[in-house]
Write a structure and sequence with these properties.
The structure holds 2 protein chains of 2 kinds. Chain A has 21 helices and 12 strands. Chain A is of the alpha+beta class. In chain A, helix 8 (220-250) packs antiparallel against helix 9 (261-286), helix 8 packs antiparallel against helix 20 (678-696) and helix 15 (444-471) runs antiparallel to helix 17 (496-527). Chain A is globular, with a radius of gyration of 28 Å. Chain A starts with a helix and ends with a helix. Chain B is mainly α. Classes of the chains: A alpha+beta, B mainly alpha.
Chain lengths: 709, 172
């Protein structure tokens, strides 16, 4: 009894402390904005220092509030409204903690905590800076923090304070529990990863605004925020992939990307961030594109908020419907206000944003980067257009339409393939102007290799199509496969996009490998070492450049994986009873047995499939459904697909609804997918992340100078 | 002059690319109409229905082909029964969309209002290309300007001044 009272007492104190901390941040963030601005304008170092301290204090206070909420989850404090909403006593500890971002109020607090953490890091990074740019950058960071603080305190309608207590007189012995779809390892990591990626994009944006306010519009702000941008890009890459992996494992539809509005919302800032990472190189090298870079980073930041707006407002239907609330309007208002602020600053600094240099030739690396930017920004806008089409169509014809995956596949495929080609052309084309010698030396061999591979792919796919026809396998015509076979030649359809994808991929790989080969050979010769030593030195000396090339290789691998898994998958759905067998691309799957077991907070019902090929057992697969005892939101049961790797491919089984008891004559809907090259997608992302980590390891010139000083 | 010729060539290339893009997007749609499945077979008709309609169960944007919920199973049984009774795919589709709303259609043919959706990406590419062009070519200093930007110089000077100031503060 004493222990229980003690725990209840601590819970109460923790909740009240957390609540007080949240409210105090209103003042600390306002203080940070005011004192930094006035201090910088009046050149008062004490006020500036006070502003920096306020940024750190905000981080401390939000950390306290977040800890109080986590403590509430861990100790099952069902006097807290948010704990009741997303947790339950039987929920495993891991998912009690991840429940922090399980619903709106908590995820906003978590977002805010990350943002204040980023602010504190910026203060720390700039502690020895001799200029004021870092302090200027703190102002926009504090303004964004203030926006989130207003939401988290529950001052506005549509969201409540996550540390609020349940209404007086109400007692809850247990909570509703978290949406079962979120109780998976990948979903536990996916949202925070995306949040980290989005939030770290705030810092380069803040530096851009700081540069505009302070008038330091050279490359300094880019150098100072370079690692933040790369970090954001890497984390977003991981976050987006985790989301795809979650969809693949949990939604039971055999795919990982369907151009869902929320998927698009995470992808668009990534595309803009990628464009920015390329265009800043032109500013660094040629002192061009200053305005463009500021616009790009502003767009990338605004798209992180737009993503949240799309996710939270519920204006567009999405598989992420569980995250909807009424706060979309506030996000839209903040997007408009902050964009307006940047536009005003750009107008104020108009003359100083003009470039000193111009493109000397349209066949140069600068032009390749500009083309790359055109395509990346164009793709972003096309995806935005498709995402918003339901609203646009409703405005035009009064009825909300859905935009199928097929639409996006069609409209992005050509720009996407051109972008793939540029991934190889960009690194090998020379700066300023290409010469005939440069073209002959760098382009001819990769182009020939690409052409040979393209023709080989054509022949292979034609043979494969013929073989499929001979075996008369009932196959689902895949979206991309259909869209890629719109050209016919001599009565036979040509999988033109697949052929182009193979051509461009081989071209890129050959181009980048030749860059590595040439550089490593030269280094080895200079150092009188082996080729491998030369390669190591090459990467070591210019991590940014060669890390970037490794990212390009990763992108090619992802393209190949997408081509295989989206273009040539096979889905077969049948109703089976125990003992029945179905065949998918040469694999015989027999529904051999069933098994049920009870877990901490769910009941698992699974079917056991024996997979054979040519009479030999190759795997045992156990697709299942989980039935949750307490789950406040969404469906009470989840699909637990069984995935079996076969080389680079996957065999995937998802089950339809299961009865409470599986008898020998019970029929179950079984969907089996054969997904070629799907594992290549995950491999490609891993290579991209590796490249990103190498690139981020290079200290920027600014950092190096600070370090040596 | 060199740039102007180059710009013209690039502009033509971009326009060809954009129109090729718009053309192929629409062309693909026409081809898909042609490769529509055999309408006499129930299995094919079921496939046509399952791939062209979204389930209304709450698993947003999941066609009946892939949706594994109980609602999908129930509705698919209804489709099969209706087909067996002789109803056409078009009738069943129309009845389903009338009941649940047009947002449950997974088809977006490049016709009518949807044509705008399909053509706009080409327009977007032109507009973004135009913005890039303006920023790049028009938004630059006059030829007579210094090679090195004023900002660069002023940044360096500013840094130097601030470093001196910091040193001065430390000394005092």
């Amino acid at each position: 009894m004493f222990i229980e009272n003690l725990v209840a007492g601590i819970q109460s104190v923790a909740a009240e402390l957390g609540q007080a901390a949240i409210w105090l941040t209103l003042f600390s963030s306002l203080w940070a904005i005011g004192s930094l601005f006035i201090g910088l304008r009046t050149r008062n170092p004490n006020l500036v220092k006070s502003g920096r301290n306020a940024v750190i204090a905000t981080f401390g206070l939000i950390s306290l509030a977040t800890s109080a909420l986590i403590y509430g989850f861990v100790t099952n404090d069902f006097t807290m409204a948010y704990v009741v909403e997303v947790s339950s006593a039987a929920q495993p500890l891991f998912y009690k903690i991840t429940a922090l971002w399980g619903r709106m109020s908590g995820s906003l607090l978590f977002w805010l905590w990350l943002l204040t953490f980023a602010g504190a890091i910026v203060v720390w990074q700039n502690r020895k800076a001799t200029d004021t740019l870092g302090d200027y950058a703190l102002i926009p960071i504090a303004i964004v923090q203030l926006f989130f603080i207003i939401l988290v305190t529950g001052l506005v309608e549509g969201v409540y304070n996550p540390l609020d207590r349940v209404p007086a007189g109400k007692v809850f012995a247990d909570g509703d529990g978290m949406n079962p779809l979120l109780q998976t390892p990948s979903m536990a990591i996916h949202p925070p990863t995306l949040y980290i990626g989005w939030i770290s994009l705030t810092v380069p944006f803040a530096f851009a605004v700081g540069a505009l306010v302070s008038g330091r519009i050279g490359s300094d702000w880019i150098l100072r925020s370079r690692r933040w941008m790369l970090f954001s890009w890497i984390v977003l890459t991981v976050g987006i992939t985790l989301g795809g992996n979650w969809a693949y494992q949990e939604l039971g539809w055999g795919g990982y990307w369907a151009w869902d509005p929320v998927e698009n919302a995470s992808f668009m800032p990534w595309l803009l961030g990628t464009a920015y990472l390329h265009s800043v190189m032109i500013q660094e090298k040629r002192n061009m594109l200053k305005l463009w870079n500021i616009l790009l980073i502003t767009l990338a930041f605004q798209f992180t908020l737009l993503g949240t707006f799309i996710t939270r407002s519920g204006i567009i239907s999405s598989v992420h419907a569980f995250a909807q609330s009424d706060i979309g309007g506030y996000f839209l208002g903040f997007i408009l206000a902050s964009t307006g602020g940047v536009i005003a600053l750009v107008i104020y600094r108009w003359q100083r944003l003009k470039s000193a240099n111009r493109l000397e030739s349209l066949l140069s690396r600068e032009s390749a980067f500009v083309l790359n930017n055109w395509l990346l920004v164009g793709l972003t806008m096309i995806i935005l257009w498709g995402t918003l089409w339901p609203i646009i169509s409703e405005a035009i014809q009064g009825e909300k339409a859905s935009v199928p995956e097929e639409f996006f596949n069609k409209v992005v495929i050509i720009p996407g393939l051109l972008l793939l080609f540029l991934t190889g052309a960009g690194p090998i084309i020379s700066w300023k102007k290409i010469t005939p010698n440069n073209f002959k030396r760098m382009f001819v061999s990769p182009l020939i290799m690409g052409l040979i591979a393209g023709v080989a792919a054509w022949l292979f796919l034609a043979y494969r199509a013929h073989a499929t026809e001979v075996t008369a396998e009932v196959s689902t015509p895949n979206l991309l496969k259909r869209t890629s076979e719109f050209l016919t030649f001599n009565g036979q359809s040509i999988p033109i996009y697949s052929v182009l994808c193979v051509f461009a991929s081989v071209f890129v790989i050959a181009a980048i490998f030749s860059e590595f080969y040439r550089g490593a050979k030269l280094r080895a010769k200079r150092q009188e070492g082996s080729f491998l030593e030369g390669l190591w030195l090459l990467i070591q000396r210019n991590k940014r450049r060669y890390g970037g090339y490794i990212i390009h290789i990763g992108i090619v691998i992802v393209y190949i994986g997408i081509m295989g898994s989206k273009g040539y998958f096979l889905l077969k759905s049948e109703s089976l009873k125990l003992g029945d067998t179905m065949e998918v691309r040469g694999y015989q799957l027999t529904m051999a047995n069933s098994h049920q077991e009870e877990h901490e907070n769910y009941y698992r019902s699974e079917l056991i499939f024996i997979v054979e090929k040519d009479g030999r057992q190759v795997a045992t697969m156990r697709p299942a459904r989980h039935f949750y005892f307490r789950a406040g939101q969404g469906d009470q049961d989840t699909i637990e697909s069984a995935i079996h790797p076969i080389g680079l491919n996957n065999l995937y089984i998802a089950l339809g609804p299961l009865p409470s008891e599986i008898k020998p004559d019970t029929y179950v809907n079984v969907s089996v997918y054969h997904n070629p090259l799907i594992r290549v997608v995950w491999l490609g992302v891993a290579v991209m992340v590796l490249g990103g980590l190498i690139a981020i390891a290079q200290r920027s010139e600014h950092n190096t100078q600070t370090a040596t000083a | 002059m060199k740039i102007r010729i180059g710009t013209s060539i690039t502009s033509i290339f971009i326009l060809i690319f954009v129109f090729l893009h718009a053309f192929t997007v629409i062309a693909q749609d026409q081809i898909e109409d042609i490769v529509s499945v055999d309408s006499t077979d129930i299995k094919s008709q079921m496939y046509e229905l399952e791939t062209s309609l979204y389930c209304f169960c709450g698993c947003e944007r999941m066609t009946f082909e892939v949706c594994q919920c109980g609602t999908a199973t129930y509705v698919k049984k209804g489709f099969r029964d209706a087909l067996t009774k002789g109803e056409t795919v078009e009738d069943i589709r129309a009845a389903y969309l009338k009941k649940h709303g047009p947002r449950y259609s997974a088809l977006m043919p490049a016709k009518g209002i949807n044509l705008l959706a399909y053509l706009m990406p080409a327009v977007i590419l032109i507009v973004v290309g135009g913005v890039v062009y303006i920023v790049l070519q028009r938004f630059r200093r006059e030829e007579s300007s210094l090679t090195q930007s004023d900002e660069q110089v002023s940044d360096e000077l500013q840094q130097q001044v601030e470093a001196e100031l910091a040193k001065y503060k430390e000394q005092n």
